[in-house]
Amino acid sequence: MKIVVLDGYAVNPGDLSWDKISELGNLEIYDRTPENKILARAEGADILLTNKTPLGRKTIESLPDLKYIGILATGYNVVDIETAAENNVIVTNAPDYSTNAVAQFTLALILEASLHIGEHNRAVKEKEWSQSPDFCFWNYPLIELKNRTLAIIGFGNIGQRTAELAQVFGMKVIVYDRSPEKKINNPKIATDNIEFVSLNDLYTQADIISLHCPLTEETAEMINQKSISQMKKDVIIVNTARGGLIVEEDLAAALKSEKVKVAALDVLNSEPPSDSNPLLYLENTIITPHNAWATKESRKSLLDIVSKNIRAFLSGELINQVN
């Protein structure tokens, strides 16, 4: 059984073990695979593991030995799952491995947008405090989260964990989900402080909007000039989901006009971003390099799930299949 990892570095840059997967076959690991080398490296593989290396129709149809694609992530838009199904190739993903990490990171972004800790750390180290006539100072208004309305779009495990953490700070939580009847499976959430609302009502009521939904035809570019126009002035927008949920030019314009107070983003449309991305040059953006998921604990959990997925496939008992 030949197993090829096309882009393993982001998941495991060397601080974790591939042993649980190497036990299952002859394992070849590539840190990164450029598009022009995908076919050569994947040739003869029974199992391909990919994080962000795209596997489209032409590639899948050119690999007659391929039986299984394991995605080293939860989102699976990097693989043409329809073509895989047509060619009897099983595709699985790794759900829920980063719930705690991403929810924690979301709150960190909200706190940074509210308190500007990084900016004040910079100011102190550049002697602004030393030169101040007062015992304290601040360069930005400091915001308390208690009684603020956090609006969560997408109420899966990460959205629910984020709601739980937000309630600790005394925030009111409103939610939009495409399945409003969805049961809350997090027992630590105070359900009397959760309200499911329409998307339009969410936009008008939110002090902070946090995106936790998948990127689909329905959600693509949902944060745009029209939706932003419905929002309160000084709204904070947080995105730890997918960059394609936001029209970046529209968000940049809203940030420049101060309709949006701060945008705190862990994801962008193009990653890494080009120098032309307008969001990179604004003072009221906080941008991190798509690493909300990347705690060592989450990455270990991811590899554990992937190995279990492959074991299940080899035993004929499929789990986490997406096609």
Task: Provide structural commentary.
This protein has 323 residues and is α/β, with parallel strands linked by helices. It has two domains: 2-95 and 296-314, Rossmann fold (3-Layer(aba) Sandwich); 99-287, NAD(P)-binding Rossmann-like Domain (Rossmann fold, 3-Layer(aba) Sandwich). The protein has eleven helices and twelve strands. Strands 8-7-6-9-10-11-12 form a seven-stranded parallel beta sheet, with helices on both faces. The protein has a five-stranded parallel beta sheet with strand order 2-1-3-4-5. Helix 5 (99-115) packs across helix 7. The chain is globular, with a radius of gyration of 22 Å.
State the gist of this model:
Pfam families: 2-Hacid_dh (PF00389), 2-Hacid_dh_C (PF02826). Helix 5 packs across helix 7.
